[in-house]
Design brief:
single chain; 626 residues; alpha/beta; three-stranded mixed β-sheet; 25 helices; elongated
Amino acid sequence: MSQAYIVSARKYRPDTFASIVGQGAMSTTLRTAVLGGRMAHAYLFCGPRGVGKTTAARVLAKTINCLHLSPEGEACNTCESCVAFNEQRSFNIFELDAASNNSVEDIRSLTEQVMIAPVLGRYKVYIIDEVHMLSQAAFNAFLKTLEEPPSYAIFILATTEKHKILPTILSRCQTYDFKRITVMDIAQHLRYVANSEGISAEDSALGLIAEKADGGMRDALSMFDRVASYGQGAITYQQALDCLNILDHRYYIRFVQSFVVGDYRDILLALDEVLGRGFDGQLVLAGLASFARDLLVVQHSSTMPLLEKPESVQQLYAETARLVSPSALHQMIRMLVGADSQYRTATNKRLLIELTFLNILSAFQPNALEGSAAAPTPQIPPRTIPTTAPAGAMSQQIQPAPQQASAPSVGAEPAQSSPVAQPPQASVAPPVAPPEVAPSAPRPAVDTPTPKPTTAAPPKPERAPAVPPAANQVEGMQTRQRFRNRRGGQTATAELRPDLGELHESYTETDVQTAWMRYVEERLGSEQVFLKNVLGNVFPQLEDGHRVALPLLDTVSIIEPVQNLLGDIQHYLQAAVHNTDIELYIRPVAPEQVHVPTTNREKYQVLEERYPALEGFRQHLNLRIL
C-alpha cells in the first residue's frame, strides 16, 4: 500500500528554530531566552498569514520541554518529550482554535486545565491560535489567568489582526512581530523542496511563485504543489504562468515601449489581448503601477535591492528603465493609482482603463494622438443653398472668412453658378466683422447701396517707446501662444516671430545656458510636464563657431517633441544673447552614456562640474544640500 500523500506545507514544516525561514531575529531571540532560562509566561506572535507564527509556537513549546537541549538551544528530537511531541501525543502541549472556541465556557475550561501540573517535562504550553476571535467576555475571563498563571504554565497567542486584541491583553504579553518573508528566501526554500522531491524547476519559475506568494511560505508551497502537478514532475516558467494565471511582465514591457514610441494602436491591441485572456482590469492597473514602481527603483544602484526579482529579470527591467525618465514614471504611477481607486465605481470599466492608458501616452508623447492619426480633414459635402434662407445669413454660415476687405452688400444675391461652399484660400486678408443680418424672411434682391463706414479711424492709444525685440513681451506672448496651439508638428506661426535683423554681439556658453533655463521656465507651460523635465536636465554645449549642441537621449519619444520646438528655441536664444549667428542642433546620445541626475546631490555635482566657483559660493554662505 502506497504511503498517503502529504502536502509540502505540512511535510516540510520547520521543527527547529534554525529551519524557520525568514524570521532570523525572532528565532535568535527565542533561542537565547531558552538557553538562559528567561522564559516569559505569555507570548503574542502577530503577523501576516503563512509566515510561521504557529510553527514558531510549536517549536518553542517542544524546545522548552526537551530533556537534552543542544548547546545551540535546539531540541534533540530523541528524548521522550520530543518523540511524544513529534508523534502528536504529548500531554504538555495544548492547541486551541479561538475561531471555533471563543466563548466564556471554553476559556473557563482552559483555566481549569491550567491548574493541573505537567506529568512529563517542565512546562505546560497552551497555544491559542487566532486569538483575536475571542469574544469580549472571553477576553475578560482570561485576564486574571493570563496575568498570574502557575509557574509551569506558558501561553502563546497567535493572531493576524493585532489591532483587534484588547490593550489589557497586549500589556500582559511579550509581543513578537513576524515580518513577510522575502522573495529570495522563499525561492531558496522552494529550491530545497524541489531538490528533496526530485523535481526539476527553473529559477525564474520559482521566483515567479515566490513573488505571487506575497511573503507567505504556506501559500508558496501550495502553489508549488499545483505547478508541480500541472507539469508532471517539472516546473517551467511558462507552466507557472499558465497554472497560476499570472500576467507576465512581458506585457508590461510592451505597454511601456508603446508609451515611449507613441503607438496608441498597439496599446489598445495589447490591452484587448490581456482582457481577452480573462485578467481583471483592476489587476492590469495595479500590475502596471507596480511595474512602473519597479522601473523607478531599478534606475539607481542605491535602490536596486528594493527590486526583489531574479538576476535575469533585473537585467530586463534595467534595459526597459533606460527608456523612461523618473518624472514620467512618477506621473504614470499617479495616473494608474487614481484609475485604480475609480475602478469599482466606474460604469464602463474597460473605457476607464483605455482612457487612463491614453492619458499616460499623452504624458509621454504630447502630440501622439494628433500626429499618429494621418486621416485627412473631413470635407463638407456639396450642398445646394436653399432659396428660402437669407442670402447674407447663408454666406456667413458657409464661408469662414470674406474674400475682400470691404464689407459685402447686404442684399446681394448668391451666385447661381456656384451653389457649393468654397474652401478658404491659403492667403486671405484679415477677417472683417460681417454685417448684421436679421433672422427674418428672405429679402427681395434690390440693388440698394451699402452704407460705407466712416473713414475716420478711432484714436489709437499712445505707444510705449520702442524696445529691442528680445524684450518685447507682447510679441513674445503671441509667439508662445501660437506655438503651443500648433498641431501635427507644423510651425505655422514662424512668421509671428519678430525679425531680429543682424545681431553679432559676443556671448559665452554660460550666457546660452542661462537663456536656455529661462526658456524652460518662461516658455513651457505647466501642461508640458514631459518637455520641462527633458529640457530641464539638458545643458547646451557651445562648439566651434556659433553651433550649439543639444545632447539628448537617442529615443523617438524625446527627440521628436524637442525637434518640433527647435526653431522657437533657436530664435529665443538668438534674441537673448543678441546674436543671430547661433545655430542649434540635436546631438543624439546612446542610452548607456546618459546618467540622469535624480537626487539633489547629484544635480549639484553636475552644476559644480560646469561652474567650479559654485562650491566656494556654497561654503561662503554655509549652505547645506538636502
